[in-house]
Amino acid sequence: MSTLDVIGLCGSLRKASLNRHALRLAGELMPASMKLDIVEWRDVPPFDGDLLAQGVPPAVAALTERIRRADAVLIATPEYNFSVPGVFKNVLDWISRVDNQPFARKPLALLSASAGPLGGARVQYDLRKVLLYLDAMVLAKPEVFIGMAATKFDAEGRCTDETTRKFVGDQMAAFERWIVAVQRMKG
Known about the structure:
Low-confidence stretches: none
Structural class: alpha/beta
CATH class: Alpha Beta
Order of helices and strands: EHEHHEHEHEEH
Number of helices: 6
């Protein structure tokens, strides 16, 4: 089997965000057949129908093409006000407007980390609705919600909690199986 190209999208722009740490942890714990490439999206402009009428902006086109080329997508995102961070939802709104939807039938997994006890559970449920509209093939289980995440990563962003490492590792093993299963379904 060739190496599975997985792109990572972090719902936070902060370089030291808990979710960026979680995304890196997932990449570290992926089976050897998978490789994570964390893709930045900071240059995606606010969605504007007038701008879209002029054509898809270069940052959106580049991100869309990278998603198309990937075998799968892994999203780690914080929860803002019980839902998806506005700037990340903006990225998904742009991608939803392009032709040849790049998320369609694309294997995808979610995880979230938060300073609070719920670990971002509400954001995942809202994000699943958006991704359903985009026709993404979202891994149902195991779900990963990293609560009290600030106590589980050290100052350098390394996970020091063995239980969290196990949950994330288990999800990445299931994600590998899911990617292969979806690829078989697609023929």
